[in-house]
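#lab-general

N.A. 3:47 PM
ok so I finally got the sequence cleaned up, no stray characters, all 409 residues accounted for. can someone with queue access submit it? mine expired

B.Y. 3:52 PM
send it over

N.A. 3:53 PM
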Amino acid sequence: MARVIVIGGGAAGLLAAGTAARRGEEVLILERNDRPARKLMITGKGRCNATNNCTMVSDLVSNVPTNGRFLFSAFMRFMPNDLMDLLENEGVPLKIERGNRVFPVSDKAVDVVDALVRWCTSGGAKIEKGRVSSLLISDGQVTGVQTEDGAVYDCDRVIVATGGMSYPLTGSTGDGYALAKQAGHTIIEPHSALVPLVCHEGFCADLQGLTLKNTSMTVLDNETYKEVYQDFGELLFTHFGVSGPTVLSASCHLKDMEKGRYSIHIDLKPALSHEKLDERVLRDFTENSNKNFINALDSLLPKKLVPVMVRLVGVKPQTKVNQITREQRAKLVNLLKDLTVTVNGFRPIEEAVITRGGVCVKEIDPKTMQSKLCKGLFFAGEVIDVDAYTGGFNLQIAFSTGHLAGENV
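B.Y. 4:20 PM
back already:
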């Protein structure tokens, strides 16, 4: 009989199990997939943005818009440098990229997964395939679990680390919410977090696959006329709208989503003021005065964006540059400084990077990750109602809460 059962072999589950095993506990991970950490395999576009190289707990907390203060103890006990030491000691060299994002030098998520599994099992934890369908609870104390095939596993303590509802093909289908409810816990309704946005403008589909780098983005609430988010970095056009790191982070700030409520304003030339950009465009027009308008924008814009911009300016593509009016040039400059798309909604939760919502943090002891309602029951990772911005922060939440739960079982 294992004294500790960890439900779920993802980032949080592996850290929880490995930590508990190295403290002398008999630990068994029950993982529903053939291989553990399948979702970890696809993070960072398969490169695995393992964490963010923050050195202050306050920096970590400030990047967690939902219940960040709840994580203070977890971060204190296991910081990004602790994870980085663990991975490098397991033979995974790391590198730090823009925004303090931490990746394996190999750019292969599988190296991180293999290292975590190796660390976990070498510490004494065992991994078996099995999908837990229910907790066994007696007199307010967890006594074991039962799997969907009827097998019963007795234990003293259980750590639920099943993830949220995003990317269900990796096994994140909300199993942990049902288990938590069985123990009397409140589930904050799951929603998409860090999710691409569906946009109204048809030109997004025309620009599908185009990535804009080093652009400034501002999101406005069209009801209140207030700015709700601003960022600088990478944006990707898709067949349905927009995605990319800046868009995913922006999605966390779009509350009470309604069709048309929010608009995204993209500055394609953030390094230039409106006046300086006008001078630049005028200079280009002077040098290309005898060219067709559609052939005179290559130095200003990515090739894919040129016909869209010509259409938005409202000038026929074959119009000679020397025939462009001052008003038409002004419209081009305005578009370069404020290319606007209107948000119609979020993409489905299945496409979200993470899930907002989950087990209510008021019912979990933040110093131990133990349930306040059921003795011997712990939670770790995305199953809890916490979520962060992009950049490795969500994985650090998983690692830190997993480590804290593993310490306290």
